[in-house]
Amino acid sequence: xxxxFSYCPLCATPLERGYEGEHLRMLCRACGYVHYRxxxxxxxxxxxxxxxVLLVKRRYEPFKGLWSIPSGFIEYDEDVRATAAREAMxxxxxxxxxxxxxxxxxxFDDPRGNTLLVLYRAHVTAGTPSAGDDAEDIGxxxxxxxxxxxxxxxxxxxxxxxxxx
Length: 165
Ligand SMILES: [Zn+2]
Hints:
With 165 residues, the chain is α+β, with helices and mostly antiparallel strands. The protein has helices spanning 80-92, 152-164; strands spanning 16-20, 23-27, 34-35, 40-46, 48-49, 52-58, 67-68, 71-73, 94-107, 115-127, 135-142.
């Protein structure tokens, strides 16, 4: 369980846990503020070349040292496709072009909080592969021979892809 707000972000009154309808939420009795918790949206790219998928090795926690699909959180004023392309560039040094929406999955095992992952299929248009930002290493892996994968949603997507290949 991730940490929750203790004080009302609007009036600084201590929040109380209470029911709003059927959901337990943090509520402000003073000003009526209700703290709605939602999954944090993230976007990523699935790049498959000759039966091998591009993965990044995680430099930081959570799941440091495991591999994942290039992805990251969407900035407030950023288009979801721009996030996918930006994360690909930051983590792999590769410019990409999005081909199609591949999958939308909820991630329930990120200790920072639940996320909603929007995954696009994409192909490389330019650049030299090089690990950057929060990637320690990058590489193409045959779908039938993947390294240890971080996040259940990534394992699900890659598993389905391997089953189809
Ligand atoms: Zn308040």
